Q: What sequence folds into this?
């Protein structure tokens, strides 16, 4: 999919959304979650069978709407001057199979990827983790890039879980959300809890949180936190 | 408390203090102690049964006096355009029960929270820790958000301790001070010593400091350090 | 080699390339890979038996083309106002013996150097590592500075490996590339995977990736990733 | 010593040197070696029995010559508007007993202080450490602030060592140099090698470097590195 010829519409469609998605990538940079050009954010185009995603190997420096490409839900380029991310097929699969998802993030952030390389889920031992993830962050299968394997692994692993994040084995993190911003927040929080639980485990065993307390924290956070 | 309707006075009361408290949040950002919108600083309004506190889920970027809400000591909103922090009840409890406290900070900083997830106090094995904390940093109980449980845990745990910081189990840190600035300093130093003691413990056992030396260091630092 | 008298051509030759190489050093600073003045980037001058390299002990602050010195392939200064890096002999040896290499980076980044101090290769347990390095990052011999020992160690260790990075024992990292930019990318990615694999190993054993999968990932990344 | 009344000369003496020393503190900030107001740099005044040192508890933000106080070699204030660092007695002791030393730095940087809390010297297992320190970084005694104990510990521990850095037990680092800049460089490099050796030790045993090789590296670095 990344090798199809890239076309350019006269003025570039969906410039505002592409600009907003470009800007969201800076949150990944700010928190040290991405290295060089790896990592990407995508967002579904409202009311269309399209999504916008970072170009492949494009730098985070000065990333603007022109670094973001418009694709259809098969991952084919519809508009843009950059070949889309080599992870486009995985994003497209998620959008095709999870209609409530409007944003997807992928990254190889160090602590979460360290858990993924052991194939180990992150246990829910922090109230902030209960708030955002509602339980452990699960591990998906090892899957090669190039077909629907990664997308299938993401969707199958997240089914029936509260967590908006999945650790793909030996690979890194995918997060989902009802917007690109929500998926970016989940990515930022995923690395944060991956780090804190890692640190805690280094010197002993973190204490568990009772399932009823996890449920209570998750319920409250999803319904009370923030501005309504 | 976070769901009461928010009112706005004509020009916004206590703007100067709210602006100063907003600015203090940047110290938490600078030292990497907070992620996304989590964490908050509050300060008692001098001569009134009020305190000011960060709004719930409000971004640290461009945080100004308008992101800070005025509450009474029951945590009810008195003035402001943002619903106050979901931790408002805990801050209010501290102000009601500890009249000498004028500032409170809450955060989920990684190293201190890692200790809290094991339910383990940080031992006083650094002279800088004897200076600021006068002994170990204690651990409070597991407590759910939503009533006075967290506030009670903070106050009960700090009673009879020199430490201005408490690690709430599986949760994070609360610090107190005679001003918001003092509580922020305690928060910054808490993570600093949590990290150094963590690192030291990773490769062996830190050497203890004799209690008489801890007493001597604490006494001197509280009375001699800084500009008089 | 670093003690030969330094000459200055009238206006400074190869200013554009020297300026570009100077600027590339900022990537090492941005990712925290270098401390004080240690570390250096060099690049072969196209169509000439020359390369350009950072001056010895020169600060990264405000580094411009004048901080970069032109040397011949024996490491002798041809043009410049700074004595070249004390690692110049190692870079020169690489350019003499590996004609396809046009860029070299040296650094003492913390995680990769930690592996080197144990004399331990970094195992290929991350898809991002398979992409960029195509296998483990190997360890070269202990070698003293001052003659061709380091250069020989680099060239001998990289022979027959896909990895553009080598960990020199008890010392640090050398990376190669078809340009200075490629070698800098390899350096940045080397520290990134050194850190993630280190973190993963701290809490258990990372799962291996099958050789056929490593081969497939490497092949695809080298041929499909990025803009073509 | 920190409680003597502070006097102010009409225009402030030694403004240029005090400004330069103030600026050097920013290197400690840049490398994350200091927290809040802890840490300090001092420098001997050439041709006088005086030195200049950071004020006690003074912020690093906007630190200028006015935040730096002039003291005599007993640590008594000669000129300045800030009470000097609470570590002034230790700096003064070093200047009185080591006439070749013109700069001193003190800090509680995390990795080096972690070694100090175990009372453990940092073994010389990196070529960069052989270059700068010429061997292990030694540990000095536990000593209370307030008299000459710390200064005596520094001077006695550094006697007969090549290392310009000493880890004071359960406390932090002191470094010396022929200028404040040299002492700052030693401080920056001390934390750098403390971190890398810590990381290396976390996953096994770093390989030793033969004493003859350490000697050779130290000799060369002291005489060849940099611009002559």
A:
């Amino acid at each position: 999919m990344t090798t199809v010829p890239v076309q350019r519409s006269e003025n570039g469609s969906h410039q505002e959304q592409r600009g907003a998605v470009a800007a969201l990538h800076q949150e990944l940079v700010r928190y040290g979650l991405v290295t060089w050009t790896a990592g990407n954010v995508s967002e579904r185009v409202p009311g269309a069978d399209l999504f916008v995603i970072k170009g492949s190997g494009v730098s985070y420096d000065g990333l603007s709407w022109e670094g973001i490409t418009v694709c259809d839900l098969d991952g084919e380029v519809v508009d843009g001057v950059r070949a889309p991310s080599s992870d486009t097929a995985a994003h497209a699969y998620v959008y095709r199979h999870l209609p409530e998802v409007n944003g997807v993030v992928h990254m190889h952030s160090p602590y979460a990827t360290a858990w993924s390389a052991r194939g180990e889920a992150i246990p829910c031992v922090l109230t902030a983790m209960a708030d955002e993830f509602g339980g452990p962050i699960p591990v998906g299968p090892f899957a090669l890039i190039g077909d629907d394997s990664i997308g299938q692994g993401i969707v199958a692993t997240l089914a029936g879980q509260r967590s908006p994040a999945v650790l793909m084995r030996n690979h890194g993190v995918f997060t989902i959300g009802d917007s690109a911003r929500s998926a970016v927040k989940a990515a930022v929080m995923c690395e944060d809890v991956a780090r804190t639980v890692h640190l805690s485990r280094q010197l002993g065993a973190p204490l568990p949180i009772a399932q009823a307390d996890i449920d209570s924290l998750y319920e409250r956070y999803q319904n009370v936190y923030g501005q309504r």
Notes: Chain B has seven helices and eight strands. Chain B touches chain D at residues 31, 125-128, 185, 188-189, 192, 195-197, 199-200, 202-207, 209, 213, 216-217, 220-221, 224-228 (CB under 8 Å). The CA atoms of residues 5 and 131 of chain B lie 44 Å apart.
